[in-house]
Design brief:
By secondary structure, the chain is an all-alpha fold. α2 packs across α3. The longest helix is centred in the last third of the chain and has 18 residues.
């Protein structure tokens, strides 16, 4: 398990692991596929979007903790 993942890396792994494509995630969280592609490319989502992604993917507590750590790392790198 990678401990230094960014949000983009975490999201990419989560989508691959669950067999979910960008269009399906975008529909599930009521955003555009372009927004999801931007996150996968390194753009930082807002916290509400992160919560919607976690809910849509049905992550467990450990995965949620890893996702938030990745999100925080992405925020720090953008400062």
């Amino acid at each position: 398990m990678q401990t230094q993942q960014t949000w983009a890396q975490w999201l990419s792994d989560a989508l691959t692991h669950r067999g979910v494509d960008v269009a399906h995630l975008a529909t599930a969280i009521d955003c555009t596929p372009a927004a999801v592609h931007a996150w996968l490319g390194g753009k930082r989502p807002g916290s509400p979007s992160v919560v919607r992604v976690l809910d849509a993917l049905g992550v467990d507590d450990a995965q949620e903790s890893a996702a938030w750590r990745a999100f925080r790392r992405t925020v720090r790198e953008s400062l």
